[in-house]
Fold this protein.
Amino acid sequence: MKKLLLLFMACATVYTVNAQVNTPQSSPAAKLEQKVGLTDVTIEYSRPGVKDRKIFGDLVPYGKVWRTGANKNTIITFSTDATISNYKIKAGSYAIFTEPGESLWKVYFYADTENWGTPKKWDESKVVAVTSVKAYEVPFNVETFTLDINSITNGGANLELIWEKTYIAIPFTVPTDDAVLASINDVMSGSPKASDYYAAASYYLQESKNPKQAMEWIDKAVDMTKEKPLFYYLRKQSLIHDKAGDSKGAIAAARKSLELAKIAGNDDYVKMNEDSLKEWLGE
């Protein structure tokens, strides 16, 4: 019994030594993942709060390089090459540092991501891109420091920062078009499926490329699925024919898509087709 008691006390002592108080972080960590075109963009950062303080021009001085958040430097990762203000940067991870100003901010993308805050010694050779962006005042207070990616297109987006009453946006582009065109050329030289023709035609429509070629591809996709016609293929066909100047073909495809969408119970496509037919028929 005595041995069991001693063993219990020893275990309790070990538990007590290893235990620690677990409390929330004052600037909690966050991770944002966003697909832009074919590029994966990831941002890892910490989010301080205003907490009744004056931030820009006070806690975060104007004209001085800032870590852009709290704790370890903010890190952005691109899965492909990217372009920021005419600076082409390689796929990889970069620290984001900023130099706030009353009306204009400088934004630096820095090759060394292993800094707690700003680097002890700033190394210009590690700056892979730098840009200046306008700072806007927002008419409300944003308590928690926030980074986001918005205004997303196939070829780029804006990296946005908003905190307290300040907002900035840093545009960047990614090489989506080159990758998509290479993929299309590769697949089309082999044995493309209906879905390949559909995807290629859809991309050409989105990017306003060669409507005649898009029409050829979407017609092929519709023909290959004629035994089991798809209302969304026909919807795309109607839009591409309209873009190519073939109003008769556009109306015919929209009518077929509308009929199939009603059977499928897809109200969104019913409305889109009805709206297009009203526009194209002048009703």
DSSP finds seven helices and ten strands in the chain. Residues 247-264 form the longest helix (18 residues). The longest strand covers residues 136-153. The helical segments are 2-18, 176-188, 194-206, 211-224, 231-243, 247-264, 267-281.
